[in-house]
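Please check this chain.
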Amino acid sequence: MARKYSTKPASRRWPAQVLLNILDLAAINAWVICKKIVGTKIKRHGYILNLADKLRNNYVPSKTFTLSDFTPGTDDGSTASSRKNKQCQINRCRNKTMNICCESKKSVCGTCTSKIS
C-alpha cells in the first residue's frame, strides 16, 4: 500500500527517501488506526491532508497581514535589478557578479576590482 499510494516527491538523496518512506508508513498506520477506532470510511488522501494541516498549525505562525503592514513605494526598480547576477562590464571578462561600482554604476567582478590599500 505504501508503494501504490505514496505521497512523496522524487528525490535522488537517499536520506530524504528514507525519511519520506517512514513518513508515508506513519501516515498509513495512523489512517488505519483512525479508521478502526472511528468506524466510518475515511478517504486516505483527505485524512493525510487533514493530518498534515493539524501538524503544521503548531509550527507555522499565523499569517494575518493587512494592507497597512506594507508600505508602498519602498522597492524601486534599481534595487530590484541590482540584486541579480550580471556579467562584468569593466573588462568584458564574462564573470558573473552582484557588485556594482559606486562611481560608474557598472557591474564589477572580483578580478577586475582594484585593491585599495
